[in-house]
């Protein structure tokens, strides 16, 4: 049976208990109670002896009882048994007294801490109320033996009252809470700053150089020029600070990693022994709290003292928001007391920092451009084994090259090499998921960490085991370092799974929700042969899709072929063309067809209607608002479009309607292939084809009596007259410096009757295909085509009226047939002509 003294000794075996604190206050230790118990007299179930003191007065009575209890051994009874058991020990029942004590403690829990557990002090209070228990007898005798108090009939009731517990002085876990509170106070920045050995830099920063020595960083490829510029700036005497400016994903942080790795390998003698510490300004602000001035002072003092530290601040533009900090840093940076590597985008640098010219000139700017496709292929091929080891799958031949090219073409909002890494990583994940394999690297690491955590929990449960605990924690940190090293392992290994070109294609389609075209899947020699074949057929393809404008299409095709074969000025656009002619002769259509052939999509055409730029202030919409104006920092419509798609066709429609300031803007584009936007960034136009369209001379043609259809002689407009009229209008309207920068002025001739028939047939074929998708079949006779061409063609408006005529003369009657239930799904409609109107014949299915 479990009796009250058993619970008493068990609780005193445990540290940090409320019962232990209460007994310890009176020097009642476990060893004293055990000695008292060992000297006790076991009387079984007999009644304890009593002393007759009725004849004595109260004072004498208490003195006699005090002496009798302290001089006599404690009488240990066999406490009456109950039918209850402790859930942790169902082999022995508990005594009736012990049940009463636990019942009391449970009621105290419900009343004082309903969401908590039983506190050991409540058990002591219960023992104090049950005077017949062995535990009460042992404690009371030792209590009287201390001489602090005299005998009382109430025993321990007045000693261990619940009022003590109300102030939480004697509760379980008091020492643990105080230790945690002390650690929190010690971790507070105010306590840290009072410690002269405290290093703010080590607290808020990460040592990248140490990570490089531990093999936790990825190898950096193809950034030797940028790394060399940074090294030169860092080793200067004064203003030895540098900022890396580049779009997101081009590899700014990778350059810093590359410098750290060279320092770790002692490859840079001028930076030998230096260490690069990376920290975020957000971490700095969070650490400072209300002690910002004191922290900044410590921060500056430490940086001035530590000459081997180079700070790497990612998103350095955030310093522009901390004016008080930049004002303190500027004189120190000028004297060389600080060495900072910053990284941000040009847009954010201009928006937040460029206004503080004194701060800006402390930095050496290093522009980090997006690497070329060839350089990106080398970078990704070098790093690819790390992805193979992670996914346990090997890349097949040419898959890396394909991933880079598809990333460049389809992930236009992202930059190389980051977009290429995204594609190969997604492809590896897809292959691994389809093979139903988990990431073994993470699985093995997590299993080892879980085992160490179990060992740590066991070790923490053992008293005075701090050495073992620290050793397990060291192993945990070591496992993380080993994991990072294994994650960046570039050793090639053979795996059964393979990542194919189709997997790269799936990854791109999953990422972009776009269908990858078959011609884009060619790489290497196949891609070169396909490009040569496409160039050799470019003239015929353009002539086929743009009818009867061979002069214009041949000029454009020749310019493209010269560019692709290397025979052009690399500092100018591929070609600058001015398309002239009456409305509807195919000027805009030619630009669309050219965009589709070069980029694979009409959506990639950058088309700007210049009628929207008739006012001088609207020019800023093209390149972005200047500083101080609304919209500054967002870039311009034209410059942003070319940035995201540098190999595009730019169509400036109806250029004569634009303000003359637009022509001044285009001069540097036509001559040098460069346009500077509102933020001062240079946008490259050297891989674009620029097409200007104009209707100049159209009014003169309309007024000329000789021009137009003549029923007597011919239905064709004289091409020579149109060319003369339009060229005269062009030279009168545009300044010579603009015309001299245009590669070729192409005049689109008006359509002949035979051409109009071909265009009509072409548009009808597209209409038939569209109607077929709706569930109907359509067939047009030659008479119907001739009537449609005759009824719709307008020599002054070109082919556009034909589209409107198809809508009015074909689509409208077909719609009426459908709503009148004369045409059903699957029926065939034959369109003929009676010489005056179109005739519709419905053949039911």
Description:
The chain folds into five domains: 172 residues, no CATH class; 176 residues, P-loop containing nucleotide triphosphate hydrolases (Rossmann fold, 3-Layer(aba) Sandwich); 147 residues, Helicase, Ruva Protein, domain 3 (Orthogonal Bundle); 204 residues, Rossmann fold; 89 residues, Helicase, Ruva Protein, domain 3. It has 38 helices and 22 strands. It has a six-stranded mixed sheet. The chain has a five-stranded parallel sheet with strand order 14-15-18-13-19, with helices on both faces. Helix 5 crosses helix 6 and helix 21 packs across helix 22. The longest helix has 22 residues. The protein is elongated and about 145 Å long. About 2% of the residues have low confidence. InterPro entries: AAA+_ATPase (IPR003593), ATPase_AAA_core (IPR003959), Clp_ATPase_C (IPR019489), ClpA/B (IPR001270), ClpA/ClpB_AAA_lid (IPR041546), ClpA_ClpB (IPR050130), P-loop_NTPase (IPR027417).
């Amino acid at each position: 049976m479990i009796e009250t003294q058993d619970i008493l000794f068990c609780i005193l075996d445990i540290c940090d208990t409320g019962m232990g604190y209460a007994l310890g206050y009176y020097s009642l230790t476990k060893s004293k109670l055990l000695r008292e118990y060992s000297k006790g007299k076991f009387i079984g179930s007999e009644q304890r002896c009593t002393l007759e003191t009725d004849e004595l007065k109260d004072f004498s009575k208490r003195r006699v009882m005090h002496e009798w209890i302290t001089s006599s051994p404690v009488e240990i009874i066999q406490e009456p048994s109950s039918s209850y058991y402790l859930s942790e020990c169902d082999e022995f029942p508990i005594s009736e007294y012990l049940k009463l004590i636990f019942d009391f403690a449970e009621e105290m829990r419900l009343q004082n801490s309903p969401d908590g557990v039983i506190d050991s002090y409540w058990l002591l209070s219960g023992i104090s109320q049950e005077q017949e228990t062995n535990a009460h007898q042992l404690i009371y005798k030792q209590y009287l033996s201390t001489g602090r108090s005299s005998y009382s009939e109430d025993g321990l009731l007045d000693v261990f009252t619940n009022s003590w517990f109300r102030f939480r002085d004697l509760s379980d876990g008091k020492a643990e809470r105080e230790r945690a509170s002390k650690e929190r106070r010690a971790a507070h920045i105010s306590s840290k700053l009072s410690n002269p050995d405290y290093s703010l830099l080590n607290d808020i920063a990460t040592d990248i150089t140490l990570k490089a020595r531990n093999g936790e960083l990825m190898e950096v490829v193809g950034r030797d020029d940028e790394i060399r510029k940074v090294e030169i700036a860092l080793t200067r005497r004064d203003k030895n600070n540098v900022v890396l400016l580049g779009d997101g994903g081009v590899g700014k942080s990778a350059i810093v990693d590359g410098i750290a790795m060279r320092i770790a390998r002692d490859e840079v003698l001028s930076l030998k022994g230096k260490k690069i510490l990376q920290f975020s300004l957000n971490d700095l602000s969070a650490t400072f709290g209300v002690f910002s001035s004191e922290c900044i002072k410590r921060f500056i003092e430490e940086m001035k003292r530590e000459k081997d530290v180079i700070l790497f601040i990612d998103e350095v533009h955030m310093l522009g928001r901390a004016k008080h900090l930049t004002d303190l840093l500027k004189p120190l940076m000028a004297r060389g007391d600080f060495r900072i590597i910053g990284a941000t985008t040009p847009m954010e640098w201009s928006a937040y920092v460029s206004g503080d010219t004194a701060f800006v000139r402390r930095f050496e700017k290093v522009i980090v451009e997006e690497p070329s496709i060839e350089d990106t292929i080398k970078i990704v091929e070098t790093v690819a084994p790390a992805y193979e080891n992670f996914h346990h799958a090997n890349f097949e031949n040419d898959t890396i090259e394909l991933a880079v090219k598809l990333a460049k073409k389809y992930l236009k909002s992202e930059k190389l090499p980051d977009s290429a890494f995204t594609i190969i990583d997604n492809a590896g994940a897809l292959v691994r998921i389809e093979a139903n394999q988990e990431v073994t690297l993470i699985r093995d690491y997590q299993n080892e960490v879980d085992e160490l955590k179990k060992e740590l929990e066991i070790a923490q449960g053992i008293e005075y085991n701090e050495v073992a605990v620290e050793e397990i924690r060291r192993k945990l940190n070591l496992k993380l370092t080993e994991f990072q090293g294994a994650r960046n392992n570039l050793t090639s290994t053979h795996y059964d799974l393979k990542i194919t070109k189709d997997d790269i294609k799936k990854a791109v389609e999953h990422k972009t929700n776009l269908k990858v075209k078959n011609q884009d899947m060619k790489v290497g020699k196949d891609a070169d042969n396909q490009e040569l074949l496409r160039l050799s057929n470019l003239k015929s393809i353009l002539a086929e899709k743009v009818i009867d404008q061979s002069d214009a299409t041949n000029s454009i095709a020749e310019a493209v072929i010269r560019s692709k074969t290397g025979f052009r000025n690399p500092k100018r656009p591929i070609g600058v063309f001015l398309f002239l002619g009456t409305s509807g002769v195919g000027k805009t259509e030619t630009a669309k067809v050219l965009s589709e052939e070069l980029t694979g999509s009409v959506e990639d055409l950058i088309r700007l209607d210049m009628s929207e730029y008739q006012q001088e202030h609207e020019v800023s919409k093209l390149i972005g608002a200047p500083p101080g104006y609304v919209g500054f920092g967002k870039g311009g419509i034209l410059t942003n479009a070319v940035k995201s798609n540098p190999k595009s066709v730019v169509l400036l429609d109806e250029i004569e309607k634009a303000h003359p300031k637009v022509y001044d803007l285009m001069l540097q584009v036509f001559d040098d292939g460069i346009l500077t936007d509102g933020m001062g960034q240079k946008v490259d136009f050297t891989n674009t084809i620029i097409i200007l369209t104009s209707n100049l001379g159209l009014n003169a043609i309309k007024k000329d009596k000789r021009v137009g259809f003549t029923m007597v002689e011919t239905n064709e407009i004289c091409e020579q007259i149109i060319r003369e009229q339009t060229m005269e209008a062009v030279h009168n309207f545009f300044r010579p410096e603009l015309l001299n920068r245009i590669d070729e002025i192409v005049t689109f001739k008006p359509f002949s009757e035979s051409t109009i028939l071909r265009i009509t047939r072409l548009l009808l074929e597209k209409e038939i295909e569209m109607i077929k998708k709706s569930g109907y079949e359509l067939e047009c006779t030659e008479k119907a085509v001739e009537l449609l061409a005759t009824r719709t063609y307008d020599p002054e408006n070109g082919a556009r009226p034909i589209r409107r005529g198809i809508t009015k003369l074909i689509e409208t009657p077909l719609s009426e047939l459908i709503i009148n239930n004369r045409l059903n799904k699957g029926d065939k409609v034959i369109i003929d002509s009676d010489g005056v109107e179109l005739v519709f014949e419905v053949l039911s299915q």
